[in-house]
Amino acid sequence: MTSPSPVQSHPASPVCQTVALIRRFGRRRAVAGVDLSIGAGECLALFGPNGAGKTTLLRLLAGLLRPTSGEVRLLGKALKSDAAAERGRVGLISHQSMLYDVLTVSENVAFAARLHGVIDVDGATRAAISRLGLQGRELTPVRALSRGWQQRVSIARAIVHGPALVLLDEPYTGLDVAGARALTELLLALRNDGAALALVTHAVDEGLALATHAAIMLDGQIRRHESTVGVDGARYADEYRRLALESAA
Amino acid sequence: MSGLKPPGTLSVALLIARKDLAIEYRTRSAFFASLVFSLLGVSIFYMVWDPTAVRPIDIAPGVLWTIFAFAGMLGLHRAFGLELQTRAMDGLLLAPVAREAIFLGKALSNLVYVSAVLAITIPAVVIFYNLEFGSGLLILGGIGVLAAIGLVTVGTLFSSMTVHTRFAELLLPMLALPFFIPVVVPAAQASAKLLVGADLATVMPWVQVLVAFDLMFGVACVLAFPFTIED
User: Fold this and answer.
1) B147 partner at 20 to 30 Å CA-CA among A204, A244, B44, B106?
2) pTM value?
């Protein structure tokens, strides 16, 4: 196990990199000096208790929040509020569906494709729908779907433009066993296709199964950050619980 | 992966407007609320009006544009409200498009919605007060479009500013209504002149006020919008 230092597996051209990233809300530092780097085909699983700053970090990586100080770099370019092209290379899957309930599955996915400037909108929409096993539900309004199916649509919406960086905030929430398995397979396929993934989750087993690197975030800081090669899931989970309890105390 | 070609500002604005109008067409919530409000408003003003004390051409313009301002207000909150329910706004903000395109799309859908309400309210006022606009009705329509542009420009900006607040539906009218005065006053003054048979040249000063307001606040609101959505 290693000390909290940035993972440098792709130091030459990481897809996503943060440098001394800090975000304050008033006097509270939600993210307190985070340095990390995620390369193409890598997946970083980020574990941490509620309030640790994980979601804030994901929103900073997506460019939805401005850092108080420090920098997020995406594909080598600083992610600023006017960096529209860089923002477009991100796919975000949140525990909120980010869908329009009244629109159909197909309309939601196609809207995201058009918004990102996908040239073959119909083809990309069909491919994303098929990848998530949503065939036969294309014309169903999203509000008529269960939470698990809505989550699949939400994922299809997030990947329809082939993002270079996929950010996942508790993506397994609301999914049944089949949905969770389909999601894991999809994320592995995205990784193999060269996408960089950052996954925030409480589920240590699911996170480690997918991740090439794991980090534990407490009080806005990365406390551990290491490769998952050779990591024992049970021991890692125990260590995570111990650190979380220490932090809470 | 499909090829990508970042869309232009106008095409994104049209895309967002079309999506908002499709949602409104399927739910019809805001449009019917505004329509019922405006027709009820016209009816109430008509019932409390004493035709022996005030001539219809004196009261009708004020009734029309006051109701227009309040009925339009009812739907403006919806523009960004529907983006918040599932945080769909994040999806818009992640797109590789200028923030201004989002504002233009929202303003465009609001303009269609407010114009539709106005298209029904004007005939209702004409019928209730037995007005004779003659050829001035066409000019009144043009004034309506200019007034609607002014109202939705300011209203859309304030909608984005207030949507995250706890009392958004209360705060929006408090902030926006003072800015509607420079829209309602010239529109009402021009309408009053048209009712007594004035031609376009006579009402032109009021039309110029509306055009100036639309241009000035149009540019200001487009420039200010990105700052209202920064977290």
Assistant:
1) B44
2) 0.88
